[in-house]
Sequence to fold (508 residues):
Amino acid sequence: MWPRLRAVLISLACIVALLDGCPMPPHEQTKAQVPALAPTLKTIDEIRLRLLRPLRGVSEVTQISQRWSLFRAASRSRYRMRIEGKTGNGEWQPVFRAGDADVSRYADVLHFRRVRGIWNMTGRRPRDGYDRFCRWINTRVLDDHPTFDTSRVVLERIAIGEGGGYTPTGELVQERVMDRRRRR
Amino acid sequence: MTLRGVWSWVKRWSGAWVELWDRREAPHALVLVRIGVAVVLLADLLATWRHDLIELLWAPPPDGIAIINMKDPPWSVRWFGAGPELAFGLWLASVISACAIAFGALTRVACVVFVFVYAQLSILAPDSDRGIDILLRIVVGILAFSACNARWSIDAWVRRGIGRPMPETVPAWPRYLLFAQLIWMYFSSGHSKVGLEWYPHGGFTALGNVLSDPHFARFDPGWVEAIHPLTRVMTAATMLFELAAPLVILFTWWNLTADRPGRLRRWSNRLRLRWAWIAIGVGFHLGIALTMRLGIFPWGVLAIYPVLFHPTEIERAATRLFRR
Fold:
């Protein structure tokens, strides 16, 4: 009896995992690319989600899923994170620049995978924790550099060349500035 | 086909299915995974402490930058309240349970505790929780149901001491499930790669791009230009490796039943396709570890690789190694 029951339970676990990991494209994407298939795919996805609903609690409490995406997109348009400080109206002085061994204060901490996950922007918007991260690192920079009046975190857009390497574009995005006088 | 024919077919296949999950084997592969995964997790948790990041990652402001949904807080916050004490408590519980898994002490309890506590760390710092953390939670969860403590563990030592030693063979199904998990992870990663750079019409430039990205690259990107054609070959190989992952189940089956007839089986074994796939996988992860800063990802996945081998193969390799 037990071997059969076990085989059934394992089969169910495999089916649930496959349903969870089933690659369903977003509805907007299918509507734009294959409009004829969009309603059918939407129905299939709704059935899939309905079947998974009773088990949502398990995946929430264990934080597991079966959708894997390792370097899903690896486009040539990327960003390079910089942390800088300045005194009065002076020039920004670099404290950290990703991938630059000459400006590598905090590099050990910032490149640690758990921290990079917060500041590394892969899509169009920064991650949820980006603002909090910037507040923390700006505070730390101002504490460690008493001569700085202002500190900032900024992402510079870079263009990766067709044959590798990259060129900075000068375009700065997601700038977060902290002024020493208004820091808290 | 008659109804009776269908019934006998269903009966035969369901019998084979039940028999598959009822098999037993020596525990070596599961034991190696238990120790390897626990060591990788411990190294990562200790690195978090070394960088003084425990409060920062898992405590809410003003002490840290954790994100807590106070309308529906996780159980750890409901029971203990958010703050640096909770952050440290969860981290310590993760370290202790990972240690217990590594040494095989109260292994099943340790695995269950680890999964639930580590999941809390993920909820408190979702941006810090990467794919490898999800994968290792699944692996430890499956190990909780296995006899991965049957060798090289305090549990086995205690059982021997009280005259109830662990059995020589243990259920093989947890290894099969971990095998399937590894295959699915690769296959899922392969078919979810949507960027053109991974495909011929994008010039297979993905790896070259990633190796030039200053957020991930370990070295200055100058060297990538010199070997760019090679990175294109490696991008194509990565896609082939990931999308062909399900075939490894077949390659392994053919390899382990080499004495049976069949042209495909013969060719697969002659070309050593199973071994080629495993070698590419090992090379792929070692290459990542060498050239990119991806933390525990390559080591965490490699720690699961023993499940790709039958315990008799591991025993044979160990005998050969130690005889030298």
User: Anything to note?
Assistant: Strands of chain B lie at 24-25, 170-171. The first strand of chain B starts at residue 24 and ends at 25. Chain B touches chain A through 78 residues (CB under 8 Å). The mean pLDDT of chain B is 95.
